[in-house]
Amino acid sequence: MDYEQPAAQFLSADLASQGKAFIGKKITVKGTVATIDLTDPASAWIHLEGGIRCNLGTFRAMAEGRTVGGAAYVDGILKRCEEGDILLEPALLRDPTAAFSPER
């Protein structure tokens, strides 16, 4: 997924209202980690504030390296974008020092 630039970048608070035009495209989201779910060995999940679920797949170390309440930059394909039900799948954590210019 690192081979191309994201089509858009969003703060988590803005994604539900501004992201629908980017369904099926790679985007970046910056948000606060609400929960981390490692219960399924085949899929590591990070949930950001605002109902944003990010499926990191088998990249468990990425999820394990995050802390609840901490900031995360996530690149992923936007699959769903409804208030309280946003899905990035597949998703990967992004380097926090990489360029980030959210949509406004």
What does this structure look like?
By secondary structure, the protein is mainly beta. 12% of the residues lie in helices and 50% in strands. It has a single domain (8-93), classed as OB fold (Dihydrolipoamide Acetyltransferase, E2P) (Beta Barrel). It contains two helices and six strands. The protein has a five-stranded mixed beta barrel with strand order 2-3-4-6-5. A hairpin with a 2-residue loop joins strand 5 and strand 6 (85-93). The longest helix is centred in the N-terminal third of the chain and has 7 residues, at 12-18. The model has no long low-confidence stretch (mean pLDDT 94).
Largest sheet: 5 strands, mixed, barrel
* Percent helix range: 10-25%
**Proportion of beta-strand residues:** over 45%
| Helix/strand class | mainly beta
Q: How many domains would you count in the coordinates? A: 1
Order of helices and strands: EHEEEHEE
CATH-defined superfamily: Nucleic acid-binding proteins
Distance between the termini: 24 Å
Q: Please identify the top-level CATH class.
A: Mainly Beta
Let me know the average pLDDT.
94
Uncertain residue ranges? none
Summed up, the helix count is: 2
Rg computed from alpha carbons, rounded to a whole number of angstroms:
12 Å
